[in-house]
Amino acid sequence: IDEPTGLPPWLPKGLGLNPARIPMGENDSNPTVVSIIGFPSKSTGKDAVIVRKEQDVFGGYVGGFLRLSRGKITEARGHEGFFWHDAATLSGSSGSPLFNSAGQVVGMHCTGGDPVKGGRALYSEYIKNVCKELKSPPAALLARPVVEQLHRKWLQFSQSIDLDQLESFYVPPDCQPHQDTITARQPLRETVDAFLQADQKQRRVLLLQGDAGTGKTALSLLLTNWLWQDFATCKAIPIRIEMRRYNAEKADGCVVDALGDKAAKLKELGLPVVLIFDGYDELAGGGYSRLWEANRLDDFPVGSKAIITCRPEYLADQDYETLLGPDVPDMAPSQLVECFVSPFTHEQMSAYLRNPQQRDTGITA
User: Fold this and answer.
1) pLDDT for 322
2) In the beta sheet, which residues pair with residue 238?
3) pTM here?
4) Coil, strand, or helix at residue 302?
């Protein structure tokens, strides 16, 4: 926020976003001063400072004003993850950050109206820990040997290729429904997410086609990692398979080869899988494999899906809906959906070249 003029000296300077934890002693004899800022309902009270007006897309004002008020922590409940404060709040203040005098976020307001204690806020440290738990696979499922083994194997592999470094300079590509379409671009990640959330009966295979260098392999690596991070909510096991390790004949059994006896155990657990077949066009010696049918993917639990990356010229003369998708009755709609990775724009290329963290990871698309 730009430093406005005419504001009281207790206004936090800089308003940084570095999490800080306030001392959590019960009934602190010297309560910590906090300030809350947000867009609640409009008020004419004199207990708050109006920092600036903020117009919304409809031409009105978001809650009237960006409002900031000062208070102190009246009771710290660190062992429960929250504290009470007496900074003035209004309806709509929930979700507003609270800052200490150093301009560090220390909590998020969630409820108000207590006549004695005032408002209640969650500690920033507590929120951070909850977010970490949501991104981590549930302990109950990870405790099952087969899931734990697959997760550990992925972590070891991701560290060996420095996946964090790859993600630090990754430029998310766009995609389009047809190869020659230039007006219907949309973020590729959104398309993949929509596919994974789509009805099982309508979409079970995503064919992702793209020219060399458009980021298909990078996406397959990062997507596997994102799915492990989101395992707590989607509860689908991501399995990435590099097709260059197989010829057409052996590709018919690549899932069993990649999972071994874990395939049967995953079926027993009833956990769906997301099989990511990277580089279908890189099958050793050429040729084609009916990935879904030959690997009997229908035997996996409901919700299982497949994502296949390939260069478009490799499938140009093939009936790839039959080749790669599940068998469907006559007249029934195909369960395969396709999209094409869009060429990078000048803006995307510039963003990549400006990133100082980029270096060669040895990963090709």
Assistant:
1) 83
2) 274
3) 0.59
4) coil
